[in-house]
């Protein structure tokens, strides 16, 4: 039997990770990524400048950037919640190590997650110190999604340590694994769109872009992953053809993901033991598709844009759940 405290902490950490991802999207989409120009504090404070006195003091710390108390609050709220998540993962690693004699207890994964959380903290710091460098911001997003996926996997295995899928359901494990890979690539493309401010590069036009099916695009410039250090990337630095290339790559990726996961959902719905999971996948996939289209045609409303990030995380969660339902358990995992 798995320690019930480990189970509850794992579930809490999984839910909290989803919240951190949504908060991170809120911070990014409200241009609050540099709301605090330093790390881990904010203008040298543990909280954020909120009074006239603290705002004046903050102005002395960074005279070249106007203090925005609202942006600073959003940035620090994200850091506080992420910090609490880090403490939870540390607790999980300690509990797992103490229970290592239990053959059902996962030990390696909690330790990997602790290392991932530490690396995520470093990426959070570099996001600020490298002035929203796109490669770092995208890596931070992918790290958050990986944390969610691994925590959910650990939670499912903790609550169902001896679960073993039937022979009929095991045959879907490779389609699910491929689906996870495609979703991960699409999330990376979405992160690249966001960090390069390319979401509105098609001028509210769908399904065409700038009135054309294949507008002028510069893929070479749009997908340079590592650019100069010291440049302030807030607002983006790419020209229109490069941003359009990024945006269209994300649309093409969406077609591939919808085709594969749509086919997978159809197959799962026809499988009696996985019918509910198939409908769940179909529902989340359809929601994500609608949100993506609405982002374009409505000009990236904040609530819909944040929801698009959150449902992407839910889609990863559904795929991890399907993996749990289709792949046999291995000791220590």
Descriptive notes:
There is one protein chain. The chain is mainly α. It has two domains: 1-162, no CATH class; 165-333, no CATH class. It has helices at 4-29, 52-61, 69-98, 108-129, 134-159, 167-170, 173-195, 219-222, 240-269, 275-297, 302-326. Helix 1 (4-29) packs antiparallel against helix 3 and helix 7 (173-195) packs antiparallel against helix 9. The radius of gyration is 21 Å and the shape is flat. The model has no long low-confidence stretch (mean pLDDT 95).
**What's the average pLDDT?**
95
Tally the beta strands: 0
Q: State the helical fraction.
A: 55-70%
Q: Structural class, judged by helices and strands?
A: mainly alpha
Return the string of H and E elements: HHHHHHHHHHH
Integer-rounded radius of gyration? 21 Å
Tell me the count of domains: 2
Instruction: Name the beta content range.
Output: under 5%
Q: How many helices does DSSP assign?
A: 11
Low-confidence stretches: none
The largest sheet, given as strand count, sense and whether it forms a barrel, is: none
Gap between N and C termini: 15 Å
Overall shape: it is: flat
Descriptive key words:
333 residues, mainly alpha, 11 helices, 67% helix, flat
């Amino acid at each position: 039997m798995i320690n019930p405290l480990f189970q509850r902490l794992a579930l809490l950490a999984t839910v909290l990770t989803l919240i951190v991802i949504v908060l991170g999207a809120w911070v990014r989409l409200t241009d609050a990524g540099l709301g605090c120009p330093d790390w881990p504090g904010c203008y040298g404070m543990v909280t954020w400048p909120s009074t006239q006195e603290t705002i004046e003091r903050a102005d002395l710390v960074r005279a070249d950037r106007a203090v925005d108390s609202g942006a600073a609050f959003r940035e620090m709220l994200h850091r506080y919640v992420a910090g609490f998540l880090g403490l939870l993962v540390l607790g999980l690693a300690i509990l797992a190590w103490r229970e290592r004699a239990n053959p059902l207890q996962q030990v390696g994964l909690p330790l990997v997650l602790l290392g991932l959380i530490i690396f995520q903290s470093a990426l959070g710091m570099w996001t600020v110190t490298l002035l929203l460098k796109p490669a770092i911001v995208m890596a931070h997003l992918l790290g958050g999604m990986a944390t969610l996926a691994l925590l959910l996997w650990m939670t499912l295995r903790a609550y169902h340590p001896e679960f073993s899928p039937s022979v009929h359901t095991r045959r879907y494990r490779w389609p699910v694994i491929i689906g996870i890979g495609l979703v991960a690539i699409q999330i990376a493309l979405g992160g690249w769109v966001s960090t390069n401010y390319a979401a509105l590069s098609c001028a509210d036009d769908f399904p065409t872009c700038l009135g054309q099916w294949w507008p002028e695009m510069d893929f070479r410039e749009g997908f340079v992953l590592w650019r100069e250090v010291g440049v302030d990337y807030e607002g983006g630095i790419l020209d229109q053809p490069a941003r359009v290339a990024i945006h269209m790559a994300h649309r093409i990726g969406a077609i591939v993901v919808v085709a594969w996961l749509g086919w997978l959902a159809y197959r799962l719905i026809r499988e009696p033991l996985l019918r509910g999971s198939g409908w769940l996948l179909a529902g989340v996939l359809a929601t994500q598709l609608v949100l993506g289209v609405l982002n374009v045609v409505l000009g990236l409303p904040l609530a819909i844009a944040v929801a698009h990030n959150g449902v992407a995380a839910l889609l990863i969660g559904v795929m991890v759940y399907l993996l749990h339902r289709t792949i046999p358990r291995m000791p220590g995992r």
